[in-house]
Amino acid sequence: MNFDYKVECVACNLCGKSLLTHVLTLRGYGYGHCDKFFLVKCASCGLIFLNPRPTRASIGMFYPQSYCPHRIPTIEKCKRLPQGFRIGRKVAHRKRLLISYTGLRRGRLLDLGCGNGFFMMVMKACGWEIHGYEPNLSIAAYVNEKIDIPVQTGTDLSTLCFSSDYDVITAWDVLEHCHSPLELIANARRLLHPKGHFILTVPNWNSVDRMLLGRYWLGLDTPRHLYAFTRHTLTAILVEGGFSVVHLRSEPDPSSFAKSFMRLLDSCHSRAVKPVRRVVLSSYLRRIIRAGLSASSRFGKGSTLLAIAKKTC
Ligand SMILES: [Zn+2]
Questions:
Q1: Which of 205, 259, 249, 238 is nearest to 50 (CA)?
Q2: Which of 34, 64, 276, 292 has its CA 20 to 30 A from that of 99?
Q3: Distance between CA 33 and CA 221 in Å, rounded?
């Protein structure tokens, strides 16, 4: 596959400084590309990001149709498949989180980076008024037409013309994909009701997953993930964008850990890989992994960071 793309060097999105230190050299992962990329850390505020990186105009080629969040499921199909079951469990968890933290059972919701719309389908079925935003044109068209949920697309978030009084805005595993996280946060602020909630998740740089699996960690989905957040930098960027963080915690993601471990195994060229893969996939070991990850999340080392934020005055 020919990957002819443009790259750009950028200053820190959080503080604007350009004094950066090298953190990790990574290879592009999956979909037929393996170019070298560099993860750097801002010496001033600690934000970790890819630099140089594919430009906004170029990044689309790293999101082929087979990219998992853009695959098109049907609810019937998802009920049948184990993969669909995991997606369903994750969506159900997100629905529970939303209701428990906002106290709302109905309202207006905007899902930023909505992908194939599975979360929106579930919330719509619960009686919520739903809108979505998805930069990928074909998946946005699919959700608009087939699922009948209004989804806007395009790369410029400031052109979003939804009304500005959402009770809840969600961004599940989206901020790390953005060329400018501050831009997405500013637009969430613009579109949120003064008493609304902004709920988001990002991979946790300080997770046990990353510490154990290093460059094979799914949270470093190079070059689709342009940023890696810690509790400190996620809080700082939300505050900079005009929010106060009312809740922040880390959560385990056994499915993501297992996929990251498979990446590690895929990189080994040993005959032992096949039996090890079978053991990892066994339900017994999965239960142990789940218990370990749950324990680590209590100490802030879980796979994902979940933040609930409200607008500052
Ligand atoms: Zn900085």
A1: 205
A2: 292
A3: 12
The rounded Å distance from CA 188 to ligand 1 centre is 21
- Cα(14) to ligand 1 centroid in Å equals 5
55: left (phi over 0), alpha (psi -120 to 50) or beta: beta
- The predicted pLDDT at position 299 comes to 80
Residue ranges of domains in the chain, CATH in brackets = 64-311 (3.40.50.150)
Residue 82: burial class (beta carbons within 10 Å; 0-12, 13-18, 19+): exposed
Whether the per-residue pLDDT at 82 is higher than 50: the answer is no
Q: What is the pLDDT of residue 50?
A: 97
* Distance (Å) from CA 212 to ligand 1 centroid: 26
- Residue 15 Cα, ligand 1 centroid: separation in angstroms? 4
Residue 267: what residue type? S
Is pTM beyond 0.85 here?
yes
